[in-house]
Design brief:
With about 160 residues, the protein is mostly beta strands. The protein has one domain (about 10-125): Jelly Rolls, CATH 2.60.120.10. The protein has helices spanning about 30, 40-45; strands at about 10-15, 20-25, 50-55, 65, 70-75, 80-85, 85-90, 95-100, 105-110, 115-120, 130, 135-140, 145, 150. The strands form three sheets. A six-stranded antiparallel beta sheet has the order 1-2-3-10-5-8. A five-stranded antiparallel beta sheet has the order 4-11-12-13-14, with no helix packed on it. The chain has a three-stranded antiparallel beta sheet with strand order 7-6-9, with no helix packed on it. β6 and β7 form a beta hairpin. The longest helix is centred in the N-terminal third of the chain and has 4 residues, at about 30.
Length: about 160
């Protein structure tokens, strides 16, 4: 058994170039030895787990859908909204929800306290994402490049 304590994992922050998307997380799976670049099943693990923290007034990612990936969310603390094709749904501590392939989604912290969420994803090989707001596709590669007829930066058209 491989065991870690999430309190001992360093939180990694990220910010988009213009500061529209800001978040931070603790990559539980990587601390347990997950290698997302590996094609070997045992090195990839069957799912990835992250503790996502969204500061007040922030959203960590553009509105997007996955071609093959499932994502499960469980709100640990705080409140905010989950945006999907039906609109915005309030989320709060204790809520659990899931987005399947093709279901566009985005998390937004519209409160005055941190929103902390467990995220579990199956991270299939060959995954791609669609960004409806900017009409582009992400094709997974080590460089994290997007396509819209030409190579684009991840945040192109989002900010």
């Amino acid at each position: 058994m491989k065991k870690i304590n999430s309190d001992e994992i360093e939180e990694f922050p990220w910010t988009s170039p213009k500061g529209k998307f800001i978040g931070s997380g603790k990559d539980i799976s990587e601390a347990l030895g997950w290698d997302p670049q590996s094609g070997e099943a045992r090195a990839r693990h069957p799912f990835a787990v992250e503790i996502l923290r969204i500061a007040p007034g922030q959203t960590p990612y553009p509105y997007h859908s996955h071609a093959a990936q499932w994502e499960f969310y469980h709100v640990i603390s705080g409140r905010g909204v989950a945006r999907d094709d039906t609109g915005r749904t309030p989320i709060a501590e204790g809520d659990a929800f899931i987005f399947g392939p093709g279901e566009a989604h985005q998390l937004i912290n519209d409160s005055e306290q941190d929103l902390v969420i467990y995220v579990v994803a199956d991270n299939p090989l060959g995954e791609s994402c669609y960004y409806p707001d900017s009409e582009k596709w992400l094709v997974r590669s080590p460089e994290r490049r997007l396509l819209r007829g030409e190579a684009l930066d991840y945040f192109d058209g989002e900010e």
